[in-house]
């Protein structure tokens, strides 16, 4: 709890003076003001985060939190739970979807076992297991409040280890069969939505059974009565260990003034937890893509974050966030490599 409290205390505001100077430069680059759209907004935000007029995001990492879920026993997913273990190992071997895309953008993949139901002895997988999967949230709390706090602190620890290694931008990813179910519960609770509005098919759950899945989410909320104003309570009662880990990464990024890129639906649920715990965290988050998962649009609206990419993706793992890393870095190249009208000898 001490680490979490200290991290939250360190989260400040964006550097408004750096943002003003960055905007002045961007507006005077040799182009019509605003003509490079979101790229201009990104540079200004990065300046606010880092305090630098010429921010860099060339040292990238995607932290992939892996965990299992007790609500799996309710039959809300078609894939076997063992996929979590298998894919977590494959993350370390560099052969999953996020690994392929990370190679393209030059990002390190950092897989973390924060709650897989079995022990994983695979070189490259960081063992930070809080417990062997959550409990069944349809019958009681997914975890204790103490376990939720510990999982948040795991995310903080892993993020700070990467920052100490020189990483200047982080992306969030996850691996956990069935994790769209707790994510839907989180969005439903914090946003006040009916579970049937925000519960989607996840990993190809049959559409004709979606009403049943949403019913499980509704039951979990009714059984646990999470407090929507208390992010840790929501996390403990209807969340997931990997969701907690990603929220911790976001809190650590904000505390260390490092931008954190949010992936899709599950990462957005983690962002809701982080921003409920400390609202200023939002300023340090950069959205990536609009997940095709049903509840993603609601999560983005709650966060007030507009996705950059519309690719009809819903894999998770951090794939959308990794793709966005290249766009974010391109914004810094715009800022660093273009000249201003004055430098070009043009009077405007």
From TrEMBL:
Q: Can you tell me which residues form the catalytic site?
A: 317
Example GO BP = cobalamin biosynthetic process
Q: Which UniProt keywords apply?
A: Cobalamin biosynthesis, Glycosyltransferase, Transferase
| InterPro entries (UniProt xref) | Nict_dMeBzImd_PRibTrfase (IPR003200), Nict_dMeBzImd_PRibTrfase_bact (IPR017846), Nict_dMeBzImd_PRibTrfase_N (IPR023195), Nict_dMeBzImd_PRibTrfase_sf (IPR036087)
Q: Which domain of life is it from?
A: Bacteria
What CDD domains would the database entry show? DMB-PRT_CobT
Is this entry keyworded Flavoprotein?
Answer: no
**Catalyzed reactions per annotation:** 5,6-dimethylbenzimidazole + nicotinate beta-D-ribonucleotide = alpha-ribazole 5'-phosphate + nicotinate + H(+)
What is an example of a Pfam family matching this protein? DBI_PRT
GO MF terms listed in the record are: nicotinate-nucleotide-dimethylbenzimidazole phosphoribosyltransferase activity
Q: Give the EC number.
A: 2.4.2.21
Coiled coil location? none
What is the main EC category here? transferase
Pathway participation: Nucleoside biosynthesis; alpha-ribazole biosynthesis; alpha-ribazole from 5,6-dimethylbenzimidazole: step 1/2
Q: What does this protein do?
A: Catalyzes the synthesis of alpha-ribazole-5'-phosphate from nicotinate mononucleotide (NAMN) and 5,6-dimethylbenzimidazole (DMB).
The record's comment on protein family reads:
Belongs to the CobT family.
The protein's name in its UniProt record: Nicotinate-nucleotide--dimethylbenzimidazole phosphoribosyltransferase
**Organism for this UniProt entry:** Caminicella sporogenes DSM 14501
